[in-house]
Amino acid sequence: MPASGDRYEAALAWLEGELDFPAKLRRTLEAEQGIKLAGDRLRLRLFPPRISQYEPMQPELPLQILYEDDFCLVVHKPAGVKVHPDGHSPQPTLANMVAGIYSERGEPVAPEHIHRLDENTSGPVLYAKNTYAKLKLDAAMARKEIGRVYVALVQGAVSPALRVIDQPIGKDRHHRARRRVSPSGQHAVTRIELLEAYPAASLVRLTLETGRTHQIRVHMSYAGYPLIGDALYGGSTKLTPHQALHGESLMFAHPLTGETLSVQDPWPASWTALLKQLRA
C-alpha cells in the first residue's frame, strides 16, 4: 500500500489533472489545513462561511434568480441599478440585493461578481459563490470563454452587410465618462446581426468578443447607429430615458463539471411598448 504522503500527492495530482484545480487555491487550503485525506476520500474545505462586504438590502421587487447551484449564481440586473456601490449614490445596488438574498435565507455566502453591466443596461450578471468558482470563472473570463449576447434598439436602418465592428476603444480625453474609438485604444470586436428593420430604427443582436467599457454603445455610435436613449453617445431620449440595451444570454463552462451552461434573460417588459411604437 502506498504511504499516506504518496497517496496525498497522488490525490493532489488528480485534483490538478482532472479538475484543473487552481494552484493558488491549493496553496491557500493547504496553509489553512483545508485539504485532508481520510482513507480513500479527499476532503476539501471549499465552502467556508463568509459574510458579504455589502450591506444586505431588499429590492422593491424580488430579485430574479436565473440560475443557482453551490458554485454559481446568475441574477437579472434591472436597468437603473448599479452592479456595486460607487460611494456616490445611496440607492441599493445589485451587490446589496444579492447580499440580501443570503441574509434573508440565513446562509453565510458572499457571492462575487465575475463581470459588470452598465447601470442602465439590463441583463444577467454572473456571480461566484466560493473561491474555487471565482478563480475558475475569472480565468475563463480572461481567456474570453464567457459568452455574452445582447439585443439593442438603435437609430437608423442598419445594413445587413454590417456583421462585425473591429475597432480599438480608449478613453475620451475631452469627456471623463465617455469612451471612443481610438487607434491607441484596446482591441475591441463586436459582432452584429440585424433582427428587424423599422422606418427609422433597427433591432440588432450583438455578440461581444471582448469586454471593453461601453463597447456596444461606442461601436454602434461609431458606425452611425447610436442606441435609442443613449444620450452620452448621440442617441435620442424621446422614446426612452436610457439606452435600449439588454443582455439576452450568458454562456459559460461550469467551474466544477465543465458543462456548458446557457442562461437566458427575457427581454424587458418595457420593450413591448417600445417595439410597438417603432413598428408603427
TrEMBL record:
Its EC number is 5.4.99.-. InterPro entries: PsdUridine_synth_cat_dom_sf, PsdUridine_synth_RluC/D, PsdUridine_synth_RsuA/RluA, RluA_PseudoU_synthase. Pfam families: PseudoU_synth_2 (PF00849). Residues 73-221 form the Pseudouridine synthase RsuA/RluA-like domain. SUPFAM superfamilies: Pseudouridine synthase. Responsible for synthesis of pseudouridine from uracil. This is Pseudouridine synthase. It comes from Paenibacillus woosongensis.
